[in-house]
Write a structure and sequence with these properties.
Helix content is 18%, strand content 18%. It has five helices and 15 strands. The chain has a domain of 157 residues: 3-Layer(aba) Sandwich (Aminopeptidase). InterPro entries: Acyl_CoA_acyltransferase.
Length: 348
């Protein structure tokens, strides 16, 4: 694996968006090596590697480094991409979602630096070049106070496995895969899980989806016994709201903090969180996920309950804004919310 014959000096630096065009061919070669090592993987013929790299470099908590050959006009000969994330739920996550997170995660959360990939041109592969890139990633991991670094290595990369072992990494798991031949070429069973825990139907029209109880899987009905549907949100002109990726944005229903049941307002309508929009009317996103105003809560006789005004309208938190009216974000890009003063959901 290692090439000791080429004597060259190198530099390693943080990648920028301007590097995307030069990194993309390297990442394509990285994908090809993964495809050769793993028979279960097959590269899409029309995949846009440059757009992928640009997206990763522009993504919050995503970092890339490039290895440059100083004797060849600083041409990029290697790269490393890492994405940092916290397995614990964010502190401002609504309580009803915290319940789901705890229910579905039996292991203690980690602060993870996930290595998306490391690639160096074959003629430049040696312990020095790999060390330069991995040291840069380690420095960032310590800076971000990451507790674990995860990297996926194929079984064929014995040299890389030996290097990682010498660098203090331990083998965490071994994955096996077996390709199964699909005998029947007819309609394939749907393997997409309902989201959020819903089954899509066309009967309600307008891309609406019926709401199901996550515990019983029964159809949720309003106080009048009618089935409840989640609809695509629309702007003031009736145009459907979409994410930056062009996906429809559905209403985000509220759950009771004690029973985890869906909540209905005084008119018998499903209570949903208002979508968060900036001063230009654009939906605020975090890593491609639309953000919503969370419900406001209060403690009553030692129990948490949804806050309501004097007319019985449910209240939602307000978003922090600076003096110019710009939404204030946390270091990880999450909008900051505060308890509402005296406004109702009807005024949103």
């Amino acid at each position: 694996m290692f090439n000791f014959s080429k004597k060259t000096s190198y530099t390693c630096r943080l990648a920028t968006l301007e590097d995307a065009a030069e990194i993309a061919p390297l990442w394509a070669k990285f994908a090809q090596e993964r495809e050769m090592a793993d028979p279960a993987l097959s590269i899409k013929s029309d995949f846009d590697f440059q757009a992928y790299i640009a997206q990763q470099l522009n993504r919050p908590l995503s970092y890339g480094w490039v290895l440059e050959d100083t004797q060849n006009s600083l041409s990029i000969v290697g790269c490393l991409l890492v994405y940092c994330y916290d397995e614990a739920p964010p502190p401002d996550l609504p309580l009803e979602w915290q319940f789901e997170h705890e229910l579905n995660n039996p292991f203690k959360p980690r602060r993870v630096g996930s290595v998306l990939g490391l690639y160096i041109e074959p003629e430049y592969r040696n312990p020095q070049t790999i060390q330069l890139l991995t040291d840069a990633a380690l420095d960032k991991a310590y800076e971000m106070k990451v507790s674990h670094l995860d990297i996926l290595v194929s079984g064929e990369q014995t040299g890389m496995q030996a290097f990682l072992s010498r660098s203090g990494f331990t083998k965490a798991a071994v994955q096996y895969t077996k390709e199964l031949a699909i005998i029947d070429e007819g309609e394939l069973p749907n393997l997409h899980p309902p989201h959020p825990e819903l089954k899509i139907t066309e009967e309600s029209g307008d891309r609406s989806i019926p709401l199901y109880d996550p515990q019983t899987q029964e159809l949720v009905r309003n106080p009048d016994g009618e089935p409840v549907f989640l609809t695509v949100l629309r702007d003031e002109d009736g145009i459907p709201l979409t994410t930056s990726a062009g996906l429809p944005i559905y209403a985000n229903p509220v759950r009771h903090p004690q029973t985890q049941d869906w909540v209905f307002d005084r008119q018998g309508q499903l209570l949903v969180c208002p979508v968060l929009q900036d001063d230009r009317g654009q939906v605020v996103e975090l890593q491609g996920i639309p953000q919503f105003y969370p419900p406001d809560y209060e403690m009553v006789n030692g129990q948490l309950r949804l806050k309501q005004d004097e007319k019985g309208n449910y209240l939602f938190c307000d978003v922090e804004r600076d003096r110019e009216g710009t939404i204030v974000l946390s270091p990880d890009g999450s909008p900051l919310f505060k308890p509402v003063k005296a406004i109702s959901v009807a005024k949103r």
